[in-house]
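Bug: token stream looks shifted between consecutive jobs. Job 1:
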Amino acid sequence: MTEDDIFTPNGARSRPPFGSTQARGKVIDQEGREIPGREFADGAPHSRFDGFHFDFRTSTANPFGNLTHEQRLVRLEAIARLLDVAFILPGTNIRYGIDGIIGLIPVIGDLITTAISLWLVREARALGAPWHITARMLANVAVDGVVGMVPVAGDAFDVMFRANIRNVRLLRRWLDKQPRL
């Protein structure tokens, strides 16, 4: 008895899927265009999906692919506000965000918010921020992430430090100093 017979009785693995039927009809992409079949130099037909991939930088599948610098910066500011100052503690003037709420989950919450903050730094780098701005942003994220891991004091620090707001301000100040094209 072979291993295939042990895992799949009756030799089901040795048969091609769906018996011996071949696919019929046109292959259509998401935008309704037919994907033409390809043949290589040897004349043998090959899979229509060889080399098929998505390019998210120019594809219509990516809603953020064709944003201007200003639109990207507005998006980063909105995410930073959501993370750091979206809500007001009732009866006080203390503002907090999702970073402070998620940070209440020990370790995992701080890792999640640090990952989102690192994504903001990556976006800043994609906008052309130089290494010294990126380094300061990374330092803010590191301080927020490391101190945020301390059980109760770290959560209070997350609410007061607002690393994401600081990072977007750093990026905005640097972009305002750049010459307009």
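Job 2, same session, no restart:
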Amino acid sequence: MNRFVIADPRLCIGCNTCVAACSAEHQAQGLQSEPRLRVMRNAWDSAPGMCHQCEDAPCAQVCPVNAITHQDDAIVLNESLCVSCKLCGIACPFGAVTFSGSRPLAIPQHCNTPLALPAPLPPAAVSPFLDCIPGIRAVAVKCDLCLFNDDGPACVRTCPTNALMLVTAESSQRASEHKRQNAMDALHADLPFISAPTVHKEQETQ
């Protein structure tokens, strides 16, 4: 199974520390600074939503240039190969793929010659799927579990309340075994109460 990060809404305080850490961690690696997770809120709880690292990965299946691949028990996106078709974002059932872009460093913003008319300002933002900013190519971004860092995902490491946890095949197996053991313990604890009426009926028959 693929590794993935889960969040406990009972522990999440909606501080956005995970979002800031994700952005800074990827920017330091020369990747898009757009955070790979979003804190979602309702009237009672908050929790970050992110890529589920699907086993069948619909985003990888629709990518026409194989920019999304299976690597180290995770679904990883190569930003350098992205062609801005946005099919991966459309295919993702969890809305975990978004789009961002950085202006080339050698081209200052709103640059033009004195003989040219000023460049029009970009239109108001609508959504990552519809926005188009002149001079900036949309690049798909999604959670890569910070595979470039041996310490693991930045969001998990920086959460102040330990609301995030990285789930691996080993930890999932341990959790399943613990769950089965708890079920067996509960069954053994209830056996006297289950068998007591049967013994009582046999005594009445005698």
